[in-house]
Amino acid sequence: xxxxxxxxxxxxxxxxxxxxxxxxxxxxxxxxxxxxxxxxxxxxxxxxxxxxxxxxxxxxxxxxxxxxxxxxxxxxxxxxxxxxxxxxxxxxxxxxxxxxxxxxxxxxxxxxxxxxxxxxxxxxxxxxxxxxxxxxxxxxxxxxxxxxxxxxxxxxxxxxxxxxxxxxxxxxxxxxxxxxxxxxxxxxxxxxxxxxxxxxxxxxxxxxxxxxxxxxxxxxxxxxxxxxxxxxxxxxxxxxxxxxxxxxxxxxxxxxxxxxxxxxxxxxxxxxxxxxxxxxxxxxxxxxxxx
Length: 291
Known about the structure:
Ubiquitin-like (UB roll), PH-domain like, 7 helices, disordered N terminus, RNA binding
């Protein structure tokens, strides 16, 4: 006998008597089978989800390095820095070069003493909210120092050459080689005399021109006269006076009047009678210069 299922599904009346007798139906058996199949496949699906989740979350698994906030002090200026705690000191120096303008090679970082380049900030003892001292010079300052060193080197070289007697130096030889001026006042070696009542004349300047020195004691002035003009100098404006005897003509001296702060400001006078040198120094600088 055949049994026909209704469109609405198997009713109790339409069920196979054998299935009813067994207390189960074909439909329930199929449902159970489907459920079991679903339970079996679930782990695979779950695994797939886990795999997808893992793949999607890989960027999230890359942890952001621990950051630390601190202050770098350089030349009284403060810079708030946030940096990786496990980065090295040399990494921080490279960062500070862009901020402070101090070349990395010229930097010294003071944390707990001098920080070593290969140590991390954590190992160096950087503390949250703490201070790191940056010691160093900017490139402009370094160049300025190099320039100053060059000038100092040149000055030393000049100083060494100045140890050579004045009369042997090239800048003076070109005047001395002209010989003793015919109208210069007679010089006397090894004698000290007071200044004469008349100007000292017949001497030469660095250009080889005639020079006359007039001492105006009442006005506290020294007049330096040339063919072109007369310079009236306050004696107090003359910083120092240097002199040396001329080799083979020791009765005459080369004399330099320093008119400014450096030796370059010296006004040179040639063929000054030796007996008046000390009197000239006393008149211009005062007797107190000897003490």
